[in-house]
Amino acid sequence: MIRTRFAPSPTGELHIGGARTALFNFLFARSAGKDGCFVLRIDDTDAERSRRDFEVRLMEDLRWLGLNWDEGPDVSGAVPYRQSERLGLYSEWLLRLRDAGAAYPCFCSDGRLDALRRERLERGEPPRYDGCCRNLSPAEVKRRIASGERPCWRFALRDGDIAFEDAVRGAQFFPAGTIGDFVLERSDGVPTYLFASAVDDHLMGITHVLRGDEHIPNTARQLAILDRLGCPRPVFAHIPMILSMDRQKLSKRTGSTSVREYRERGFLPEGLGAYLATLSWSPSGSVSPFSLEFLAGDFSLGRISRSSPLHDETHLLHWQREAMRRRGGARIRREVVASDPRFGFCGGRLDALLDDLIDAHPFTGELMRAVSFLVEPPENGREPWMSALALVLKTLEPWNGEALDALLRSFMKEHGLKGKEFFHPLRLFLTGLDRGAALPLVLFALGREEAVSRLGG
To answer: Is the four-CA dihedral 425, 431, 432, 437 of positive or negative sign?
Structure first.
């Protein structure tokens, strides 16, 4: 059985990095067929920043990408899937650690901790708690609590190294003393991410944790918790962080864009999904990146790269164009007509024109603007020869792209016109544009009656 989870915090929109993590967890679970389960858990212990509307939008974006979960907040399950609804469980598991002598109260003020952090950084050492409160006597603890002090609870790390085998990055090693005693529960009684996540992964039976490699230090701490509780370790697979084109951590300034924004810009879910699938992993040559089912059948942790991919929108646009081509003119035409019924008069004649314009206009909204001349005739001057062209078009058989192309070239030659004297004025008159799709496709989409009417005046 393979059980994976995607556990976002609802403190903002779903971005590229989170979407890629969700996709890889989904694909790995689905690679096991009926023996796989993809869990959506909402890590919302940050009450000040967590918002339910962000949670709703996040779930909408995941479903838009086709990443449907088997267990989650809105899918019936045996347990709650929001951490804010599981606080009692964390208290129970903290008590187990306290009873085992693996957790202790810490009364250090924020001021002392800030000073300790500065001192260590000034000495060129990583910040680490110094264990000041670790050996307080029970009487001292009781006295301070009775006086109104509210401690946080820290994990008492054992002496010794922490090591684990990462399914992507190989052996990971944290020598004894490099990690300090970390907080399990804050002084307000709310568990930290480190503790709640470790407990949840155990209780939910998560077998594989796929997440960004910035979490590797967190993994060492969470494994220490699980080991002390006597819980089995899940397999960890840390995915390399996606970087901006200048190899910086993604941010708004460096190009971090939300899935919602890509949706609003007109990207197709299958195009964005194909792009995400190629960030640190790539399907076999015969596997379509547009099919989640095929991707899942091909997915493996062993083929995930250790190097950080770059978020390149030119590559994303490539996959968007490919996705639009796969949809094809007929399906896009139905979407166009649903959005603006005025295009309905073109019928299936519009398909070839849309197909021809996809490279230049890879979004449905752009395509609609590019063919707006079909329903909003431009106001441009008519050339004297256009009435004659209307007459020959009136009797053309059959009405298709090849016949129209042959007729236009024959008409131009018979009337002694050069290409620029004929095609450019004709394009301007029909479309209002200097360049665009092939004119035979424009006329074909307009249809005989409309083309003759416009040219004949």
So the answer is: negative
Token readout for 164 is 């684990």
Task: Parse the chain into domains and list their residue ranges.
Answer: 1-75+240-311, 88-185, 320-374, 386-456
Degrees, nearest 5: CA angle 183-158-224 = 60
**pLDDT value for 252:** 58
- Per-residue DSSP letter, 83: G
Residue pair 86/200 in contact by the 8 Å Cβ criterion: yes
What is the rounded distance in angstroms from the CA atom of residue 229 to the CA atom of residue 88? 17
What pLDDT is recorded for position 217?
A: 96
Coil/strand/helix, residue 146: helix
CATH number of 1-75+240-311: 3.40.50.620
Phi and psi at residue 183, to the nearest 5°: -80, 135
DSSP code per residue over 317-368: HHHHHHHHHHHHHHHHHHHHHHH-GGGGGGGGGHHHHHHHHTTT--SHHHHH
Residue found under tokens 């195009």: 271
pLDDT, position 380: 83
Measured distance CA(106)–CA(189) in Å, rounded: 13
User: What pLDDT does residue 425 have?
Assistant: 96
Domain 386-456, architecture per CATH: Orthogonal Bundle (1.10)
C-alpha to C-alpha distance for 141 and 434, rounded to whole angstroms: 81
Q: Rounded to an integer, what distance in angstroms lies between the CA atom of residue 285 and that of residue 288?
A: 8
Rg (CA), the chain: 31
CATH class of 88-185: alpha beta
**Cα–Cα distance between 195 and 205 in angstroms, integer?**
16
Active site residues: 252
Which residue ranges in the chain fall short of pLDDT 50? Answer: none
What length is written for the chain?
457
Nearest-5° angle of CA 109, CA 115, CA 119? 145
